[in-house]
Amino acid sequence: MSAAISTLFRAKARYTIATSTTSHITSSRSSHFASRPCFRASTFSPKRGPQVSRYITTSTKGAGNGSNATWAKYILALSATAGASWYLYTQQGTLRLDSGKTFTHLHPLAPDDEVSLANAQAIKSLETLDLPEESAILTTAPNVPPPITRDHPVLLNVDLTTTAKLEQLTNQYKYEKWTFNDTVPGPFIRARVGDVVNLKITNHDESGMPHNIDCHAFLGPGGGAPLTTVGQGETKSARFKLQKPGLYVYHCAVGPVGVHIGNGMYGLMYVQPEKELPAVDKEYYVMQSEFYHEPPEKDENGQVKDTVEFSWSHALREAADVVVFNGKEGALTKTPLKANLNETVRIFFGNGGPNLTSSFHVIGSNFDKVYRDSDVLSPPGQCVQTVSVPPGGSTIVDMNMVIPGTYTLVDHAIFRLEKGASGYLMVSGEPTPHLYHSNQAPMPCEGCKLHP
Ligand SMILES: [Cu+2]
Q: Which residues does the annotation say bind Cu cation (predicted)?
């Protein structure tokens, strides 16, 4: 058989040489091209400029010269190869293991029912999967559930309830927010890769508006939205296997989706990798988002109302009226994040949007580690000053706090500071004059929102 294959290759080689392609390219562009053997000058057209033409001829001279003998070798070689293939094909299927047992692969031409039976045995529905069961610890921003220390997957029960709730949005105005579990952002959900989330969603929004969950950690159509849409008073459950680690945004995806997100329906789910990130001293949950509202109306007495309503036109123009961390102006300035000197602080930062990309920055610090876009499988970036976080995206940043004082969280698209986007991280500890010193007292500028 090897002689036959050798004959085949030699015949093939001759055929390739005999049919080798020759290109003739003409050009008047430059003497550089013209000097090359395969280029020759062509005419210059005043309308079209220099004309380049390319001729490709395929010469098959000599291919038929030998003809009958070559074709006979071809046929002989093909017959030999086919015979060898058939022999190998008839021998496949059974594998003898060292243990003496045999293992039989499914025959490639096995009847459909045999293949279906094998698949049914291999793939178990998430409904019947036998896993230990846990209820997820859900926390309200800026709090984060403790790290998961188990090393095996569980069926993780996550219960979410949708509501509508009038509450303070800015120092001046109230706004009816649409929520998961009564908070904006929704609760922080911590899971581990390999877990199966058993999501139960109940709709307590009395307006009759349906809601659902599109979670970026759930792979499959709509991120789970089609399976979780609930009308008023309804409850639905669905299960999703967490296949990839990272920090994922979840949000309501009922149309018009921008309205549901714009009214506050988003949160974060952290899917820990098998090997969790290095431990830190403090972990916080911060989520940026923006709101679009009409000017306040007047009541029957001519008084300006203290409540504002969603503005479709502002949202379409992406002209945000309010940009905030954790759902309202002052959420992180009236109740700052806290740490002690020389502690490492981790912020799980998400952007609900619905429209604006955040340039997340902490004034006075920089990020010692950044798991960019919440990629927790790659090495982190180091010493990064500002991180870009798109709507529906997130990042994880670590900061070593080596100087005491107050640090300000901002979106460095800095006019958003005037729309509410600021928060504080207060670091307690003894002064560190070897790192930060002046003989004069600090003097913040009047009305300063950055340096309290
Ligand atoms: Cu919704």
A: 211, 216, 251-252, 260, 265, 412
Q: Please give all residues whose CB falls under 5 A of ion ligand 1, grouped by chain where several chains appear.
A: 211, 252, 254, 260, 265
Ligand 1 centroid from CA 210, angstroms: 6
Dump the DSSP string for 410-437: EESSGGGGGGT-EEEEEEES---TTTS-
Find out whether 216 is annotated in a ligand binding site.
yes
- CA–centroid distance, residue 252 to ligand 1 (Å): 4
C-alpha–C-alpha distance, residues 156 and 145, integer Å? 14
Q: Is 314 annotated as a binding residue?
A: no
* Cα gap 12→222, rounded to integer Å: 52
Ligand 1 center–CA 253 separation, angstroms:
6
* Residues near 350 by beta carbon (within 8 Å), at least 6 away in sequence: 185, 247, 249, 266, 267, 268, 286, 287, 288, 389, 393, 394
Instruction: Report whether 215 belongs to an annotated binding site.
Output: no
CB atoms under 10 Å from CB of 217, counted, come to: 26
251 is in an annotated binding site: yes
Distance (Å) from CA 211 to ligand 1 centroid: 4
Q: Confirm or deny that 437 is annotated as ligand binding.
A: no
Ordered per-residue pLDDT tens for the chain, 452 residues:
444 444 433 333 333 333 333 333 333 333 333 333 333 333 333 333 333 333 333 333 444 444 555 666 767 777 776 666 565 554 444 444 445 544 444 444 444 555 555 555 556 788 877 899 999 999 999 999 999 999 999 999 999 999 999 999 999 999 999 999 999 999 999 999 999 999 999 999 999 999 999 999 999 999 999 999 999 999 999 999 999 999 999 999 999 999 999 999 999 999 999 999 999 999 999 999 999 999 999 999 999 999 999 999 999 999 999 999 999 999 999 999 999 999 999 999 999 999 999 999 999 999 999 999 999 999 999 999 999 999 999 999 999 999 999 999 999 999 999 999 999 999 999 999 999 999 998 887 877 777 77
Q: Which residues contact 93 (CB under 8 A, 6 or more apart)?
A: 104, 105, 107
Instruction: Give residue 168 CA to ligand 1 midpoint distance, Å.
Output: 20
Indicate the pTM of the whole model: 0.74
Residue with tokens 């299927």: 93
> Binding site annotation covers 451?
no
Distance 31 CA to ligand 1 centre (A): 68
209 marked ligand binding residue:
no
Distance, CA 46 to ligand 1 centroid (Å)?
64
